[in-house]
Amino acid sequence: MSDDPKQEAPGSNSWDATQWHEVVKGDTLSKIAAKYYGDASLYPQILEANKDILTDPDKIRVGQKLRIP
Amino acid sequence: MSKRLIFAIITIACCFALTACSTVKAPAEAAITAADQALAGVSKEASQYVPDQLKSVQEALAAAKANLQKGEYQQALTGAQDVAAKAKDLAKAVAAKKDELTKAWQDMSSGLPGMVNAIQSRVAILSKSRSLPAGLDKDKFESAKASLATVTQTWTEASNAFQSGNLMDAVGKAKAVKEKAVEIMNALGMKAPAAAM
Question: The complex's ipTM?
Fold first, then answer.
């Protein structure tokens, strides 16, 4: 897992407070939810925030930038 | 030289002196009135935006008035003219300060609501969590929630201050919101926007 490498990632507005996570090998939405929320069962929050790019929670790819609400 | 001639010379000299005094007295009085009016026109806003600069000009006006009282008309005239010029500078300084504060407000008001929303969103999700993420314990989380309530309240006050034209207060409160929001984001393991750093 990696911490957000570019805070201003998509959009590049210096005031953008969106939190990002760049997917690395071995990541799952549950693991990402556990990292940021301490609870893997909260992964639907991440899925919902990224529904424009994710349709299946099991299909995330390395390098993808996910919003972490 | 005869006594009559000396007397005539002294009389003429006195006349010249009196004429000179009365020639300068009226312009000095007029200049002080004008300086008074010029200062009155800017003092309300100047006291809010550039109080130190205003104090210095008020002191200069008081000195000019004191000179007038003492009969030092030329100094009073020069002083009053200087005050009138400084009153114009005050107006420019007020305009510059208002411009600076307006820009600061526009900048912060474009970003702070987004920061506050991001924090609210994270707090709402963490409140549902069965355990907190690494680096965040219960006390820290409760403290962040309390700070969020303060930040929300302060932002409302800042917006109200701006609506009522109180730029100094609005920007001061917005800065406080920004600093507190950065603290909360750090505590929650979030990254603050670059513009807030």
Answer: 0.85
* C-alpha distances in Å from residue A56, one per residue of A26, A39, B196: 16, 20, 35
Radius of gyration of chain A, Cα coordinates, nearest whole angstrom: 11
Domain contains A48 = yes
Domain residue ranges of chain B, discontinuous segments joined by +: 3-95, 98-196
Residue A58 lies in a domain: yes
Among A29, A23, A18, residue whose Cα is nearest residue A56: A29
Q: Into how many domains does chain A fold?
A: 1
**Does B134 touch chain A if contact means CB atoms closer than 8 Å?**
yes
Instruction: Measure in Å the smallest separation between the Cα of A15 and chain B Cα atoms.
Output: 5
Which residues constitute the domain of residue A41? 25-67
Q: Is the dihedral of CA A51, B193, A37, A3 positive or negative?
A: positive
| More confident of the two residues B118 and B23 | B118
**B64 near B81, Cβ under 8 Å?**
no
Q: Are A28 and A47 in contact (CB under 8 A)?
A: no
Closest CA to B39 of B97, B98, B79: B79
Q: Do B126 and A37 touch (CB under 8 A)?
A: yes
Q: Give pLDDT tens digits for B92-132.
A: 999 999 999 999 999 999 999 999 999 999 999 999 999 99
Mind listing the pLDDT tens digit for each residue in A2-53? Answer: 444 444 455 568 999 999 999 999 999 999 999 999 999 999 999 999 999 9
Residue B38 and residue B83: Cα distance in Å, rounded?
Answer: 9
CA dihedral B60, B64, B70, B71 (to 10 degrees): 160
Q: Do B111 and A15 touch (CB under 8 A)?
A: yes
Number of CB pairs, chain A paired with chain B, less than 8 A apart: 66
Task: Check: CB of residue B54 under 8 Å from CB of residue B47.
Answer: yes
